[in-house]
Write a structure and sequence with these properties.
It contains 15 helices and eleven strands. With 334 residues, the protein is an alpha+beta fold. A seven-stranded antiparallel beta sheet has the order 4-3-2-1-7-6-5, covered by helices on one side. The longest helix is centred in the middle third of the chain and has 31 residues, at 97-127.
């Protein structure tokens, strides 16, 4: 059996075209390289595994390398000489349509399960590894960025601010003692009626949302909801989930110092995106439990959301806190 191959003599990068003679009975290969006749036992050759139709790489004991395109001839030599070639099963799998289809299905399922379950679990673990003091620093940096990008000075009357701050203190006292919770007021401008929780425990409340509220209890439950995002570290978890490589490195090494760099994406996340449905449910549960513990009807929260849903425009609290209908069903039932 003869086949054409490219030969490298192992002493330079020059490629020579040679005709390889494969003797299946003697289990040897031979070819003429310049004036020298080369001959090798098949068992002494190092043959690369087959990968689709790509040329096979054959290394000889004296350093020559052959690139052979005739895969069938090489496979036959391997079988006859019983040469151990690792990875031959890969070609068998990729050459069978059913195996290829199965591998695609398995890959899709793996990615889906990792994205839906694995990554969120790891992100939660890593987020709670970050010290609260680090969250405080991140929160201050995010607030400075938002003040430059979005907000302007609040125009609310001082009495309204004092009244809402008193309610906020009441909500904060029911939460974790690790955080130094703080309420700040800002004019929302283009984002309108909204509220944001920063990683360190600061909650931003816009004038527009306060103006839409008809009772203090409505705003109080919004504040409880936002602090639910803080204590469950949703902001940092959201960033980590969207930064898979960095997340895995932090989870494996335990080095969470790079979380500060990732948090630079938080201002954009807060303004232009929204938390996952699971995060919203966790924050809703905090607000609901707070309402029940204080004897406040959970309907106050839904009443405000219903009112905001009638407001024109795409921006505002509902753009970052979706699913009013789901919340209405849940709070009404409870």
């Amino acid at each position: 059996m003869n086949c054409v191959a490219y030969c490298y003599d192992g002493r330079g990068s020059t490629r020579t075209t040679v005709r390889v003679n494969i003797d299946y009975q003697a289990r040897v290969i031979a070819f003429q390289l310049g004036e020298e006749e080369k001959s090798y036992r098949a068992i002494d050759l190092l043959i690369s595994p087959r990968l689709a139709s790509t040329p096979r790489r054959i290394e000889t004991p004296d350093g020559c390398i052959l690139d052979v395109s005739d895969n069938e001839a090489i496979d036959q030599l391997i079988d006859v000489a019983e040469i151990p070639v690792p990875g031959r099963w890969i070609h068998r799998l990729e050459s069978k349509f059913r195996y290829v289809s199965l591998s695609i299905v398995i890959t899709v399922l793996f990615v889906w399960l990792s994205a839906g379950y694995g990554i969120p679990v790891i992100a939660k673990h890593v987020a709670f590894m970050v010290p609260v003091t680090t969250n405080l620093v991140l929160g201050e940096e995010v607030l400075v960025a938002l003040d430059k990008m979005v907000f302007s000075e609040s125009q609310l009357p001082t009495n309204d601010k004092q009244k809402l701050t008193k309610r906020f203190v009441s909500v904060a006292e029911s939460m974790s003692d690790d955080y130094k919770f703080r309420l700040v007021f800002r004019r929302g401008g283009k984002i309108g009626a909204n509220a944001f929780a920063l990683p360190g425990g600061t909650v931003i409340l816009t004038d527009e949302l306060v103006e839409k509220a008809q009772t203090v209890s409505e705003v109080e439950l919004v504040l409880a909801h936002e602090l639910g995002h803080v204590v469950n570290r949703h902001g940092l978890r959201q960033i980590l989930q969207s930064s898979t490589v960095a997340l895995l490195i932090m989870a494996i090494t335990g080095d969470v110092s790079s979380a500060a760099a990732l948090a630079s994406a938080l201002p954009t996340l807060l303004v232009e995106s929204h938390y996952s449905r699971e995060f919203e449910k966790e924050a809703d549960r905090v607000a609901y439990d707070y309402a029940i513990s204080r004897g406040i009807s959970p309907r106050h929260f839904i009443n405000l959301l219903d009112r905001l849903s009638d407001t024109d425009g795409d921006l505002g609290f509902l753009s970052t806190h979706p699913s009013v209908q789901d919340r209405s069903k849940k709070f009404s039932a409870q």
